[in-house]
């Protein structure tokens, strides 16, 4: 019985402490806010970023860079504070939530938006043309695909894409003499690599956005396919688009069936999931994102790293080319002109201006979205940067911003992982995905 | 075979079974610990490394410094404690009424309460989110705790009712004859002898609330308010960095407090549950 | 029952304060409970049912009333498979959580009686698994199940037996893997409930059985299990409903893949709403889950009433 009493006392004590802590902090923040409002001393700029682009980033150098930029910015404007917040790392959920916030007028001053989805936020975002002009930032300096999404239907600029990425074929130069340009060449080469005991060709094939942007869209687009029609309604399951999509799915199916690609790809939904396979030293080729160069350099020994090179993706027919561009954009939601200007200034110095974009992209291993930044002294790419840049300038595309895209993507992820795991034939899988989306 | 011999064989059998149970339940945790102390090269090394030769405690330091894990844990603890408190405040009177009163529709009401136990949090989360936005209660621990309490109430009420039922009615009858009101009877007579039942309810409510994911995930969009379950999802592999070791370290930090509580309080937990509360 | 008599005694007493009158009606005692339950559950459920008859989308404000969500759901080829997957997941999770829970409870009980060391450690290790949030369990097991050469389970299988398993990439194996992780997570609850039940068993029953010469197995089957039946039933209801509603762990482990081979109903609701933003479809699926849970509960209660478990 005594034990029980002690325990009860302990628990009550904890409750009281927790309760007090709660009240204390709430009052405190209220007071601070009231003071600020009364004296007009401090302007808070809410800055919502993806975890990897925030002070919570796993990379210490990034955190240091961002902290320095914030400190410098706050030192310059004595009464301004950056108030950081982070997005959920699941991008589609984070974007859905930001959309709800924006619709309810609760969006932060600055928010990071997945570039392809930016057009859906036009209604809530502030036009930036005057600020661009004031800062001497030329939108023509951006890659064409970035300009497309930054400009709204009225011709005004609604966002700033500040990083991008692209997908390429990685191959081991010691076992692949020349990278395959077509699927036929890829099959022939894979047969030989398989005989030599290699995992010939890896791609993300599970449930995750990486599967669609890396393993499906580049091949689909290169043939001339389109996911949605002019009215933003699903179109991948009818007419020529259906044929193109079926070609892609059959290609992935055959790679697995012939034993060139392992079934376990059905469990890898993002490009980074392939890293652990590559680390085994048994992989000959894989398709992945440009940022994986840095990750591989971390995992592999210098000698092993030197064996890898990149090339354009092998396509169905020679001469076809396409790849996916991704990346992030900043949007400014606040309607207060003072805050807008401050927010823009912060973004310029940290992520968008010459120095800012060069430094941030170097740190994160991202590709700059502005041509001139590639020449900037602060930008350090890697030995493949020129190839990536060429890819982006010539044949990179963005996913459609249609409201139906998340559904299309999910259904195609299901289709691909079903095919890779051997659960369905390409025809069946496509049929089901189309039925689920078209309704 | 002598009896003594037989006993020894049985004991060895039990020990062997213990080993299997321990392996099954502790191995996953051991592996997370191992991952959390590896360097990036060791994470991907072939053949696989069982335990780092040079444990990277810096991984933990990194998680402490660069994530809000401490804050997440504090939030979780606060939410769980307040949920337990308010659940008890509401469930104890209700359980008392169900145990001691006779009224029309009693059976139906009790059944109705249990029916709420069947509702998946994911079903109610979206409408609640929209409602809380309208009344501007979104992003507060108060609204979150209200929902947590509601989720815990059906089971706790029912569990406590079961416990009160085991207390002989003669005790409160005597108290009422002595001039006590119902409330006094509950406070002075029933509660003191119900401590084990209340503690086991608290523990069950606490554990369930600690694990809750959907509700905070949807009702909160401010990183500073996240409990540990939601906070950790943010750490899960971002595409442009290798985070397995950090994720493992953060998971260990999220597991440790609970393990600690269980190790310290384990006598109470088992004691509370075994003192008749689960008679049904 | 004695309560009735008690009530009359009180209300007929001469000096009745308002407090006493109120105190003698069950209404004030139950009022907070009813308020909270109605507010947090009833309104959202009505709203969800309403939404299930619309084509609402999470990212656009407009919607029309329609039956298309249900039509799509019931006519899609995936629907019956989703139900089967869920039933498999729930049935085997519950079965093994009960069996394993019972076994471990008996082992610990015997251990304590025989004065063996290590019982506390076994108990704590099982309980720890239970207290880890589901998403973290999903993350942990995805590390264990990793199919490349850094996956530890496959590494062990390979070094001992020379083969490995497609834990998460084969549709059938993936469903088993997910179920196994869920058994790991949920066994503790059954274990502790049954262990507690064992402590409350009247000693004389067991002793009587021993005098009768019943051996251990017979004792278990004819004495222990029947005595614990009400407890086992309640435990069964709780974990069945819990497993039907569970998805956080599966979400972190497979996201429902490969294909939809591990997409249990609760996860499907989540995926429809939060990945595809299809609120109408998600709501319709939610109504189906609600219907299943209601049905299950009614069946259980019907059975329990017969067994006189509920007062």
TrEMBL record, chain A:
It comes from the Bacteria. Pfam families: SBP_bac_8 (PF13416). Transmembrane segments: none annotated. Residues 1-18 form the signal peptide. The keyword Signal applies. Keywords: Signal, Sugar transport, Transport. This is Multiple sugar transport system substrate-binding protein. It comes from Caldalkalibacillus uzonensis. The lineage of its organism: Bacteria, Bacillati, Bacillota, Bacilli, Bacillales.
TrEMBL record, chain B:
CDD domains: TM_PBP2. Its main location: membrane. It is found in: Cell membrane. PROSITE patterns: ABC_TM1. The chain crosses the membrane at residues 12-33, 79-98, 110-132, 144-164, 185-207, 246-265. It comes from the Bacteria. Residues 73-265 form the ABC transmembrane type-1 domain. Pfam families: BPD_transp_1. InterPro entries: BP-dep_ABC_trans_perm, MetI-like, MetI-like_sf. Keywords: Cell membrane, Membrane, Sugar transport, Transmembrane, Transmembrane helix, Transport. It is a multi-pass membrane protein. Belongs to the binding-protein-dependent transport system permease family. MalFG subfamily. This is Multiple sugar transport system permease protein. It comes from Caldalkalibacillus uzonensis.
Automatic annotation (TrEMBL), chain C:
It is found in: Cell membrane. Residues 83-300 form the ABC transmembrane type-1 domain. Pfam families: BPD_transp_1 (PF00528). InterPro entries: MetI-like, MetI-like_sf. Keywords: Cell membrane, Membrane, Sugar transport, Transmembrane, Transmembrane helix, Transport. The chain crosses the membrane at residues 29-46, 83-107, 127-145, 174-198, 219-241, 283-303. It is a multi-pass membrane protein. Its main location: membrane. Belongs to the binding-protein-dependent transport system permease family. This is Multiple sugar transport system permease protein.
């Amino acid at each position: 019985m005594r034990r029980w009493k002690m325990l009860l006392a302990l628990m009550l004590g904890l409750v009281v402490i927790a309760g007090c802590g709660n009240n204390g902090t709430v009052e405190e923040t209220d007071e601070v806010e009231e003071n600020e409002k009364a004296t007009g001393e401090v302007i808070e700029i809410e800055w919502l970023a993806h975890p990897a682009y925030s002070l919570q980033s796993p990379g210490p150098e990034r955190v240091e860079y961002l902290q320095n930029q914030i400190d410098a910015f706050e030192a310059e404007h004595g009464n301004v504070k950056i108030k950081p917040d982070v997005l959920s790392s699941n991008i589609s959920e984070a974007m859905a939530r930001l959309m709800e916030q924006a619709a309810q007028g609760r969006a932060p001053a600055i928010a990071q938006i997945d570039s392809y989805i930016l057009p859906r936020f036009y209604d809530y975002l502030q036009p930036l043309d005057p600020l661009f002009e004031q800062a001497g930032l030329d939108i023509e300096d951006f890659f064409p695909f970035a300009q497309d999404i930054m400009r709204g239907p009225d011709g005004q600029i609604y966002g700033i894409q500040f990083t991008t990425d692209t997908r390429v074929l990685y191959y081991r130069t010691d076992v692949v003499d020349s990278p395959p340009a077509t699927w036929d060449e890829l099959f022939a080469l894979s047969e030989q690599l398989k005989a030599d005991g290699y995992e010939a060709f890896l791609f993300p094939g599970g449930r995750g956005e990486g599967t669609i942007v890396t393993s499906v869209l580049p091949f689909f687009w290169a043939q001339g396919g389109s996911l949605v029609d002019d009215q933003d309604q699903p179109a991948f399951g009818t007419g020529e688009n259906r044929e193109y999509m079926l070609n892609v799915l059959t290609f992935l199916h055959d790679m697995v069936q012939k034993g060139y690609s392992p079934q376990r790809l059905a469990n890898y939904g993002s490009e980074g999931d392939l890293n652990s396979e590559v680390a085994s030293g048994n992989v000959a080729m894989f398709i992945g994102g440009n940022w994986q160069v840095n990750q591989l350099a971390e995992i592999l020994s210098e000698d092993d790293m030197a064996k890898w090179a990149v090339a354009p993706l092998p396509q169905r027919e020679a001469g076809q080319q396409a790849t996916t561009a991704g990346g992030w954009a900043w949007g400014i939601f606040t309607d207060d002109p003072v805050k807008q200007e401050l927010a823009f200034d912060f973004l310029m110095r940290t992520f968008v201006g010459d120095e800012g974009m060069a430094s941030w992209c170097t740190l994160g291993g991202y590709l700059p979205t502005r041509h001139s930044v590639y020449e900037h002294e602060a930008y350090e790419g890697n030995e493949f940067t020129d190839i990536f840049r060429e890819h982006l300038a010539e044949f990179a595309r963005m996913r459609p911003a249609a409201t139906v895209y998340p559904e299309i993507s999910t259904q195609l992820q299901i289709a691909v992982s079903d095919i890779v795991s051997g659960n369905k034939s390409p025809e069946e899988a496509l049929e089901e995905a189309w039925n689920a989306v078209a309704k | 075979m002598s009896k003594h011999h037989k006993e020894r064989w049985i004991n060895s059998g039990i020990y062997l079974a213990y080993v299997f149970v321990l392996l099954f339940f502790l191995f996953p945790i051991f592996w997370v610990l191992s991952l959390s102390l590896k360097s990036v090269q060791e994470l991907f090394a072939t053949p696989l490394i069982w335990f780092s030769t040079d444990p990277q405690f810096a991984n933990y330091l990194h998680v402490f410094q660069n994530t809000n894990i401490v804050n997440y844990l504090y939030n979780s603890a606060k939410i769980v404690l307040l949920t337990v408190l308010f659940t008890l405040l509401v469930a104890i009177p209700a359980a008392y009424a169900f145990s001691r009163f006779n009224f029309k529709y009693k059976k139906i009401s009790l059944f109705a309460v249990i029916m709420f136990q069947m509702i998946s949090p994911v079903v109610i989360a979206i409408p609640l989110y929209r409602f809380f936005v309208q009344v501007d209660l979104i992003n507060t621990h108060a609204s979150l705790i209200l929902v947590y309490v509601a989720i815990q109430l059906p089971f706790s009420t029912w569990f406590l009712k079961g416990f009160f039922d085991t207390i002989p009615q003669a005790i409160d009858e005597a108290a009422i004859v002595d001039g006590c009101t119902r409330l006094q009877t509950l406070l002075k007579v029933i509660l003191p002898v119900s401590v084990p039942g209340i503690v086991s309810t608290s523990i069950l409510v606490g554990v369930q609330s600690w694990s809750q994911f959907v509700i905070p995930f949807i009702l909160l969009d401010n990183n500073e308010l996240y409990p540990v379950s939601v906070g950790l999802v943010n750490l899960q592999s971002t595409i442009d960095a290798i985070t397995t070791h950090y994720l493992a370290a953060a998971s260990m930090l999220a597991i440790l407090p609970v393990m600690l509580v269980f190790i310290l309080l384990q006598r109470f937990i088992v004691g509370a549950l075994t003192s008749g509360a689960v008679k049904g | 029952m004695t309560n009735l008599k008690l009530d009359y005694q009180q209300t007929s007493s001469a000096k009745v304060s308002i407090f006493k009158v109120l105190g003698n009606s069950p209404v004030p005692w139950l009022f907070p409970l009813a308020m909270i339950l109605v507010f947090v559950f009833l309104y959202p459920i009505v709203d969800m049912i309403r939404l299930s008859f619309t084509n609402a989308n999470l990212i656009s404000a407009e919607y029309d009333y329609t039956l298309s969500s249900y039509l799509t759901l019931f006519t899609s080829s995936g629907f019956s498979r989703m139900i089967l997957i869920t039933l498999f997941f729930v049935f085997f999770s519950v079965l093994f959580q009960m069996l394993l829970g019972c076994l471990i409870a008996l082992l610990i009980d015997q251990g304590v009686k025989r004065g063996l060391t290590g019982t506390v450690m076994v108990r704590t290790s099982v309980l720890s698994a239970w207290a880890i949030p589901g998403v973290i369990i999903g993350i942990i097991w995805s590390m264990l199940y990793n199919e490349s050469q850094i996956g530890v389970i496959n590494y062990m299988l390979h070094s001992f037996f020379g083969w490995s398993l497609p834990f998460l990439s084969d549709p059938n194996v993936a469903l088993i893997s997910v179920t196994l992780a869920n058994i790991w997570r949920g066994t503790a609850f059954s274990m502790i409930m049954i262990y507690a039940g064992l402590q409350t068993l009247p000693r004389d029953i067991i002793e009587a059985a021993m005098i009768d010469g019943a051996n251990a197995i017979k004792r278990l089957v004819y004495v222990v299990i029947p005595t614990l039946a009400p407890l086992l039933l309640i435990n069964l209801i709780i974990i069945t409903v819990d497993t039907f509603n569970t998805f956080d762990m599966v979400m972190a482990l497979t996201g429902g893949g490969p294909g939809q081979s591990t997409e249990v109903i609760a996860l499907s609701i989540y995926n429809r709403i939060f990945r595809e933003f299809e609120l109408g479809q998600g709501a319709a699926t939610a109504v189906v889950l609600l219907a299943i849970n209601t049905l299950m509960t009614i069946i259980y209660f019907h059975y329990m009433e017969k067994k006189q478990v509920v007062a």
